[in-house]
Amino acid sequence: MTDELPFPESLCHRCRHLRIVRSAKGSCFLMCQEPSLPKYTAQPVRACRGFAPPGPPGSGALGTE
Ligand code: SF4
Q: 52 CA distance to ligand 1 centroid (A)?
């Protein structure tokens, strides 16, 4: 068993939309919860129009004005 997350260089690790999914076999996946984007995009993500840092709602989320 390992606590290492895949693609540590990915922008997703700094995004509020990331959800870490672990399978019963111990595999780990990066799942995007931004509704307008694919759940499992090619990694590592370097730039993303949906990126939003952790913080209060409306502080960088996709589609806010
Ligand atoms: S919105 Fe972009 S940066 Fe954020 S988790 Fe989804 S794919 Fe990664």
A: 8
